[in-house]
Design a protein that fits this description.
With 440 residues, the protein is an alpha+beta fold. It is built from eleven helices and 14 strands. A hairpin with a 2-residue loop joins β12 and β13.
Length: 440
């Protein structure tokens, strides 16, 4: 079903955009038009259709165990998990672990993104959110949001040219547990976003989720923020962190914010956080089926937050919210930068960062970067071991000539050089274990 909402815009006589409100129900257009005319005297007010696609992701009303087993097998056979085929017995063991960990959430789909949408609907139904009038997700695919999102400085990956690795050292890689998952419970917008053209300052807008388009270049020596030129966009949470840490931001050309917001994915986040703790502990006890269920959970969370929320082409559910995806990614990066700042306060700087991984060099392979909270000791309590948002050591490799050369080529090349060093020191990996065996 397609519902035609309206977009109300205000332009100067010369065609310069002043404000852009959407989506608006037809019976609200007159009121919004009057408000906009009062706010922007002399502006040209226009009204145009804004398309909103209602949810079309199928939700099975009756789903038997045979269907769930097929979905488990389909997901595990995909490259999202590991491309291995499960027998019915193995799939049944994985499904049992999934049900126990999630307290009954059914594997309604064999694709992680769709399963993530189903989880959102399931936790809302359990909480009686609709009956209680709690605002839910509404699909938003608007050209203005897309324009801001496309210009977003989303991943500040970098290598620091001043901190060069050298032979005789070790490269230590630390990685964030659940990079996006840890940030999913934040405030996310709903309703009509507000566009502000050339605000006098941005401080008053930083408490709301949204975007800031820069009117000038961001000038800094920090390697993570090179190339942020005029016209580029920062998320409000990123701008707030930069200002707090002494960066001087240029004036804003435009600000797009959601003044209405709530923690839309908080119960979704909690469902998978709690299930993750259970499955990690079960995996540690030798339960291979729990390990596969954990891989399914990770794929569901990562795919939903990292791609499915922003996939207007494939995702036709109410969770088409690229603005939510952008805000979650920005929050994840801010938290990562907070950890790096803590390390820097101890006189330690990473030589580079790519996505959820940071690289340090040291003369001692047993050394760990100070100020970064590691949670990779299995003796920690269940709710703290591999805790979301904390860190773990994922590689300690000798610095090779390839790593030294790759450092000059950027974070992507450095990643591949690190992987090559890992392969050189690793033994031949064992074949995947039977996930249906070894279950307590």
């Amino acid at each position: 079903m397609t519902i035609t909402y309206q977009t109300v815009s205000a332009h100067t006589a010369a065609g310069q955009l002043l404000a852009h409100w959407f989506p608006i129900l037809p019976d609200q257009v007159a009121s919004i038009r009057d408000q906009m005319a009062e706010r922007y005297p002399g502006a040209v007010i226009t009204v145009a259709p804004c398309r909103y696609t209602a949810p079309t992701v199928p939700v099975p009303t009756e789903l038997g165990e045979r269907d769930e087993l097929a979905n488990v097998q389909r997901m595990c056979a995909s490259d999202k998990i590991g491309k291995f085929d499960l027998t019915d017995r193995q799939a049944a063991a994985v499904l049992d672990e999934w049900h126990q960990a999630t307290k009954g959430f059914k594997v309604l789909h064999g694709f992680p993104g769709m399963l993530g949408v189903s989880a959102y609907r399931w936790v809302r139904a359990k909480a009686g959110a609709e009956a209680r009038g709690i605002e839910g997700a509404t699909a938003l695919d608007d050209p203005l949001v897309v324009a801001f999102s496309n210009d977003l400085h989303r991943h500040p990956d970098y290598v620091d040219p001043k901190r060069k690795p050298r032979r005789g050292q070790y490269l230590i890689e630390v990685d964030v547990n659940g990079h996006y998952h840890a940030s999913a419970g934040i405030e996310l917008g709903h309703g009509t976003p507000t566009l502000i053209h050339r605000p006098r300052d941005i401080d008053g807008y930083l408490k709301d989720p949204g975007y800031i388009r820069l009117a000038g270049d961001l000038v800094t020596k920090h390697p993570a923020w090179q190339g942020v030129r005029r016209g580029r966009v920062l998320a409000t949470t990123t701008a707030k962190w930069l200002l707090k840490n002494g960066f001087e931001l240029p004036a804003a050309e435009e600000v797009l914010i959601w003044t209405e917001h709530r923690r839309h994915l908080d119960t979704w986040y909690t469902l998978f956080r709690d299930a993750r703790i259970v499955l990690i502990q079960r995996k540690l006890s030798g339960n291979r089926a729990a390990g596969v269920a954990l891989d399914m959970l990770k794929a569901t969370v990562t795919t939903t937050l990292g791609g499915w929320l922003r996939s207007e082409e494939k995702n036709h559910s109410e969770l088409v919210r690229r603005d939510w995806s952008d805000q979650i990614m920005a929050e994840a990066w801010v938290r990562q930068m907070v950890a790096m700042t803590r390390a820097e306060s101890h006189g330690v700087w990473p030589i580079g960062i790519r996505r959820d991984a940071a690289w340090f060099t040291t003369d001692d392979p047993a050394w760990r970067p100070p100020g970064i909270e590691l949670a990779d000791n299995p003796t920690l309590p269940a709710d703290r071991y591999l805790q979301l948002g904390k860190w773990k050591v994922t590689a300690v490799v000798p610095v090779t000539a390839q790593i030294i050369a790759a450092h000059r080529g950027g974070p992507e090349r450095l990643l591949h050089a690190k992987l090559g060093a890992q392969r050189a020191q690793d033994t031949t990996p064992a074949a995947p274990a039977d996930p249906g065996s070894g279950s307590p």
